Amino acid sequence: MLISLLFAAVLAAEAQSSATQPTSLQSGPEAAAQAWFDASQQQDWKRAAAVVDLNALVTFRNDMLPMLMSAKKGKSRDDVLAMFQVKSLSELSQLEPRTFFARLMQSSAEQHPDVADAMKQATVVFVGSVEESPDLTHLVYRFKTQMDSLTSSSVQVISVRRTAGRWYVLLTGEMKGMK
Asked: pTM score > 0.85 for this model?
């Protein structure tokens, strides 16, 4: 259930190998956000993770690990290990933050194909931005998607931060609070 909520929050609230840095990150806040949406729609979670701020991913992983590490032996623990494609909880705790995030998103997409399919059909239109500082911009966008016969349209905000000359997507407050 938590993973379902997490996956839906990432896709809906945000639309989402650290050596791989898309060139669009150099182009500005909107290009970084568009790279996130494009990668999410294509379910390319390694590429999506590459455009998320590393500090945000470190915090996210560190917030999630205690809950995941408490998985009891048996099916619960086996499910956690399978979700992250690891053989032990120790190996899970050593995953690099971008890999941790990408594997969680991949597993969530596989477990919830209806949400993943809705994301593939979603449209994102940027309608404005607020520059909080030279290195932090909040982009306002309209997110439209359809799931079965339900059409959803909402105005949302995605924040991006410039680090070392590149723009990266930040995780939303909803994501930070999920445990």
From this structure: no
Residues in the chain: 179
Please provide the DSSP assignment of the chain as one string: -HHHHHHHHIIIII---TT---GGGGT-HHHHHHHHHHHHHTT-HHHHHHTB-HHHHHHHHHHHHHHHHTPPTTHHHHHHHHHHT-SSHHHHHTS-HHHHHHHHHHHHHHH-HHHHHHHHT-EEEEEEEEEEETTEEEEEEEEEEEETTEEEEEEEEEEEEEETTEEEEPPPHHHHH--
Give the CA distances from residue 143 to residues 11, 36, 68, 87, 106, in Å, rounded to whole numbers and listed in that order: 10, 13, 31, 38, 21
Predicted confidence pLDDT, tens digits, the chain (179 residues): 334 434 444 444 444 333 344 444 458 999 999 999 999 999 999 999 999 999 999 999 999 999 999 888 888 889 999 999 999 999 999 999 999 999 999 998 898 888 888 888 889 999 999 999 999 999 999 999 887 788 889 999 999 999 999 999 999 864 444 44
- Which among 80, 98, 102 has a CA at the least distance from the CA of 89? 80
Task: Map tokens 């439209």 to a residue.
Answer: 144
Domains and CATH numbers, the chain: 2-177 (3.10.450.50)
